[in-house]
Fold each of these.
Amino acid sequence: MAGKEAGLKWRVAYVFAYPLFRWVFGVREVGKENVPLEGPVIIASNHRSAWDPPVLGFAAYPREVHFIAKRELFNPVLGPIIRFMNAHPIDRSAGARGALLTALNLLKDGRAILIFPEGTRNRTDRPLLPLRRGILWLSYRPEIKERVKVVPAWICGRVGDFKVAFGRPISPKEVEEGEFLEHLSERMLELREKIKGGRADGTGSLKGS
C-alpha cells in the first residue's frame, strides 16, 4: 500500500548506499522514530547544501521519501538516478505552485515528501530564514489536513560529518493555522540546539545534550 515503509526498490537502494552515506558522508541521525511509517508525511527541514535531499532521505529510512526537483536536473546522466530515487520533475515555468500541486498529489496518495520551507538554500549567517507560506497552504489543504503529519527536521555539517535530527510530528488539525509557521520554526530551531549541544550518534539518542 502506498505510504508504508520502504518498498523493495528503496530497501535495495539503502543497502547499496549505506557504506557511502554512513562511512564516507558520515551521516548520523537521531529521532527517526518520529517519522511515521505510513500515511501522508511532510518532512520540513532547513536547507544549506545540495547534499541535503539525499542525506535526509537516507536518514529517514525505513520511510520512503519523495522529492520535488527542477526538470533541468533530469538530464540523460543524472535523470535516471534521481528518478529512481523518487525525484519528481517540475517545469521552471510552473514555479512554486507547480511544486506544491505535485507535492499535494503525493500526499493525497499517502506518501512522505521532503520540503524546505525556507523556499531556497540559506546562504546567510542566520540559522533559519523566515518560513514561506507554501508549506502552510499544503498542510492545511482540506484533502489531507486531518491525516497529514509534519515532521520538523534539522541538518548540519558537511561531507564526512552530517548530522540530522527529526522532531515529534505536528498535526495541523491540532494547531491554529495562524500559528503554524511560528510553531514549526520554533520546533526546527529546538532541534538545532539539540544537535549543537550534543552528538547525533545514529542510535536514537543525543550524547552530551
Amino acid sequence: MRISLRIMILLVLMAAASTAVAQPEQINVPVPAGWTAVDQEYRYDRENLWEYINGAAELFLTYGFRELIVLDVEKGDSGLTISVYDMGTSLGAFGIFEREKPATGDQLKGIGGAAILQPPYRALLLKDRFYVKMEVGGDDVSAELLTQAMADVAANLPGSDELPPQLALLPEADRLPGTVAFAGRDFLGISDLRNCMHASYELADGVEYQLFVMKPSQAFLGNKRGKWTVENRQGDELLIWREIPYTGVVVLLGDEKQMLGVAGFEDFEAAVNILESLQK
C-alpha cells in the first residue's frame, strides 16, 4: 500500500511533536545573586557523563539521568562549582539525592525539596527533577553565603519544591529511620520491578519487611502472567504475587497506574493483610 507524501510528512511532524512534549525543557544553571559566571556552561549527556564522573556515571544512569550542566561562579576571592543534574523525573532526583547524601551535615528547611550543608562547605540540593551539587573552591565560603547561594539556585530552577507524591504512600508508622530510597531498576534483584520508591519497616515482634510503590510498566503488565500469579479483584484492582527463593513472597496490590508492594514475608496472607490495611 502506497502512502502519500502529505501523509508521511504529517506522521513525521506528529512524531516530532510527541517527542518534544515528552522531553523536559532544557535549563541553564542559575547564577546566585552577587556571583558572576567565570566561564561558559559545560554540558554532559548520557553518552559522555563518564568524562565528568567516571566511576559514578553508571549509578546516575540507573536513576534516569538526562543531562548535567556545570558552571563555575565567583564572588571576590571565593569560587563555587555548581553542578545541576537533570534526572528527568522527581523520583530519579530524589533517588540519587538519598543515595549520595552524607550521614552527617546540616539539613536546611525551606530550600527546594531538601537541602544539606556539609563542611567543609559542600552543599547538596533537591528540587523537582534536579539534583544539585555546590562545591567550594578558592577561599572558604561561609555557611551563610553558601546557604544563600543554594536558596537562589533553588528559587530559579523550574518545578515544584514538593517531594515526590509517592513518598506519602509509605507510612511513617513502624518505618526504620533513613531507609527511604528509590530504585531505578532491579529492585529486590527482580528485573520487573523498576522505578520503585521503597522503605524498610519493623513490626512489634521484630519482623522486618519492605514496602514499595511503583508505576507498573506496560512491559511488566504484558508479561506478568508468565512469572507472576494474577488475581483480578473489584473494579480495575489487581493482586499480583510471586515467590522468591530464600526471600519469601513479593505481593503487589493496585491498578495499572500505581501499585503498592510488600516483600519480606514468608506467609502470603500476612503480606496481603499488610497491603489491605494500608489501602483502607
